[in-house]
Specification:
By secondary structure, the protein is α+β, with helices and mostly antiparallel strands. The longest helix has 24 residues, at 3-26. The chain has helices spanning 3-26, 38-44, 75-85, 100-111, 124-133, 148-156, 227-239, 248-259, 270-274, 285-294, 326-336, 339-347, 355-360, 366-371, 386-399, 401-404; strands at 87-91, 114-118, 143-146, 183-195, 217-219, 280-284, 301-304, 312-319, 351-352. Helix 4 links the parallel strand 1 (87-91) and strand 2 (114-118). It has 2 domains: 66-186 and 315-376, Periplasmic binding protein-like II (D-Maltodextrin-Binding Protein, domain 2), CATH 3.40.190; 187-313 and 380-404, 3-Layer(aba) Sandwich (D-Maltodextrin-Binding Protein, domain 2), CATH 3.40.190.10. 40% of the residues lie in helices and 12% in strands. The radius of gyration is 21 Å and the shape is globular. The chain contains 16 helices and 9 strands.
Length: 405
């Protein structure tokens, strides 16, 4: 089976798994549903016999055990072992998300390692699902980029390997797992955006109730599965009398918005933004800002962070505990957390985990800083704790059916 055929089959299988998971979530299951789509995934990807090709080089020799810390190995040795493997399997990295297209291209060119990016639009839940379903296969994901709730789930389910990259001490404590199972990579805040050819840019959450937005407001996915949509509902809660401890007002807000006919059950994607299907969107600031550049020929796109709810969150890097290319996986982290990798994320308008460290060392180019929104927009940003996210996830699982079925 070719790589392209494999990726297409995995994508179809993940779509089937998504339907199964939604049915389970409607019955109130929050975690523990990851194995629901395993039979479909295994059937689509050719069973569990390990596939063809593989990590560990091609010379028939067993590589040394991969390290748990970048401080425990010379990076030249790490690079040599990764090059011997020659492949890195990523998953769920849209090329236009946080500049991941350039990130992957640069990594591949820099080290001569082929990057296979399966199912670019898969959700965090589906990433963990793929780790379970493809265990032991050479096509399993080596690395993941998931929301904090799913990072916690992956750690609890023993899906991830321990690895503290060589920049570990420069990463804020709140952006990393103390045991080294995952590490925050970049963060953003919930923003509102509009194609001003179709609608005025809303300045507050209350503005979204205006009849002028009938049939125009969309989230980036289902909040039971999508980290960005989940954050959108949490921000709506903060803006409507709730808090990071009380997400129900956010669900009530979207219920009202749907009853008014303003909220539509169409996932906001680059395609729907470009073609005008979702003229008003609720999504991460870094994605929204990038759309303005990417689709300037098709739309007039404006973005704001509403002052009535500045809610942010981050994503997390993790390494599959059974990664088929464990050295390439660790080299990927070393690249991402180097100044070079962090600046590539910043180029995509996200806030990289080591931004403060790089700013303190004055290594952030001024031209990148000039393209970012005013720092004043982020002064009051709120980040949910793991406990708050867990509690909100349970409420979302039980209550979102009133909005999204």
């Amino acid at each position: 089976m070719s790589d392209r055929e494999m990726e297409e089959r995995l994508a179809r299988a993940l779509d089937e798994a998504r339907l199964t998971r939604r049915a389970l979530l409607r019955r109130g299951a929050v975690f523990g549903v990851g194995m629901a789509g395993v039979p479909a995934l295994l059937a689509a990807c050719g069973g569990d016999d390990g596939g063809d090709g593989g990590g560990g080089g091609g010379n028939g020799e067993e590589a040394a055990e991969p390290p748990e810390s970048g401080a425990d190995i010379d990076l030249a040795e790490l690079e040599a072992n990764a090059k011997e493997e020659g492949v890195l399997n990523t998953i769920a990295l849209p090329p236009d998300w946080a500049n991941y297209g350039e990130v992957m291209q640069t990594f591949g060119s820099k080290y001569g390692i082929r990057v296979v990016n399966a199912s670019p639009n898969a959700s965090s839940a589906e990433e963990n699902q793929a780790v379970k379903a493809l265990k032991g296969q050479d096509r399993a994901p080596d690395v993941l980029d998931v929301g904090p709730a799913f990072a916690a789930e992956g750690k609890a389910d023993n899906l991830y390997a321990v690895y503290k990259n060589s920049q570990w001490d420069t990463i804020p404590d709140e952006l990393k797992d103390a045991d080294g199972y995952w590490v925050g990579d970049y963060w953003g805040v919930v923003s509102l955006a509009a194609n001003t050819r179709e609608a005025e840019l809303p300045q507050t959450w209350e503005d979204l109730k205006d009849p002028a937005y009938r049939g125009k407001v969309a989230l980036n996915g289902d909040p039971r599965e999508s980290g960005s949509a989940f954050a959108g509902v949490l921000a709506a809660a903060v803006a409507n009398g709730g808090s990071l401890d009380d997400i129900q007002p956010g669900i009530d807000f979207f219920t009202e918005l749907k009853d008014l006919g303003n909220f539509i059950l169409v996932d906001a994607t680059p395609a729907t933004v470009a073609n005008g299907q979702t003229p008003v969107t609720i999504d991460w600031d870094y994605l929204q800002i990038a759309y303005g550049d990417e689709f300037a020929a098709n739309i007039d796109w404006e973005v704001t962070v509403p002052a009535d709810a500045v809610v942010g969150n981050f994503y997390c890097q993790a390494i599959n505990a059974d990664a088929p290319h464990p050295w390439a996986a660790r080299l990927w982290q070393e690249f991402l957390y180097s100044d070079e990798g962090q600046l590539l994320w910043l180029k995509g308008y996200s806030h990289p985990a080591r931004f403060q460290d790089m700013s303190d060392r004055d290594v952030v180019p001024q031209d990148l800083l000039d393209k970012l929104p005013s720092a004043s927009l982020y002064e009051d940003v709120q980040f949910p704790t793991q406990e708050q996210s867990d509690a909100a996830t349970e409420v979302i699982a039980e209550g979102w059916a009133a909005v999204g079925g």
